[in-house]
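tool=predict chain=A
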Amino acid sequence: MVTPLGNGVKLSWERLLAKHSGIRSLKVEDLKVNGLLQSEDASLDLLSQMPSRVVGAVPYGSSAGEFDSQQWLQGKV
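tool=predict ok
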């Protein structure tokens, strides 16, 4: 189970029961568009044009509770 609260059933339920929220403000780092945004200014410009800046993003990475696509998906993501 992968949710904005984390990767894994146990962790997601623990965070849910502890009244954590996976909803947060959108960050420039969330705008990974396969390397199309080559500058910080371009990313900030795109962020400023978003009609909504609220996100329920899945934590991405290789740390505990984060989703690592390389572990689950074959090929590029």
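The CA atoms of residues 28 and 45 lie 10 Å apart. Helices lie at 9-17, 40-49, 69-72.
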